[in-house]
């Protein structure tokens, strides 16, 4: 492993942490164990930011919805803060939360529908 590359990536993460005002624990850990993957993720992230027709507020709301549906507490906290920083209001965050809950609930219902249909068909037979 190239120690200079690892140190460069860790320094980039440190600068991002200063800008964000919070630690980036997952990326820092990944940079420690596999700097090449951390570097590739940073490159992809940069491409998403540069070549994106969505404004920062919309991106923040989409990211928050995805974090809510995946139910990862760290992602929810980070994306909620990012949404606030992007100008998303408390009311808009509440609306995103409601929509995410509705879609997640619908997905659970939809996924269970096939099993329910099977049970009902077996009972009717």
UniProtKB/TrEMBL annotation:
Gene3D superfamilies per record: AhpD-like
Single GO MF annotation: peroxiredoxin activity
Top-level division of the source organism's lineage: Bacteria
Keywords in alphabetical order: Oxidoreductase, Peroxidase
Ranges of residues in domain Carboxymuconolactone decarboxylase-like: 47-114
Pfam families xrefs: CMD
Protein name stated in the entry: Alkylhydroperoxidase AhpD family core domain-containing protein
Lineage: Bacteria, Bacillati, Bacillota, Clostridia, Eubacteriales
């Amino acid at each position: 492993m190239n120690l200079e590359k690892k140190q460069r990536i860790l320094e980039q993460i440190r600068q991002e942490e200063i800008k964000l005002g919070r630690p980036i624990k997952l990326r820092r850990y990944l940079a420690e164990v596999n700097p090449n993957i951390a570097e590739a993720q940073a490159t992809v992230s940069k491409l998403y930011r540069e070549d994106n027709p969505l404004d920062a507020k919309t991106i923040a709301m989409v990211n928050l919805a995805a974090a809510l549906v995946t139910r990862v507490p760290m992602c929810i906290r980070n994306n909620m803060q990012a949404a606030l920083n992007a100008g998303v209001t408390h009311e808009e965050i509440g609306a995103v939360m409601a929509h995410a809950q509705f879609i997640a609930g619908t997905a659970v219902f939809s996924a269970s529908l096939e099993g329910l249909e099977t049970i009902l068909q077996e009972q009717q037979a």
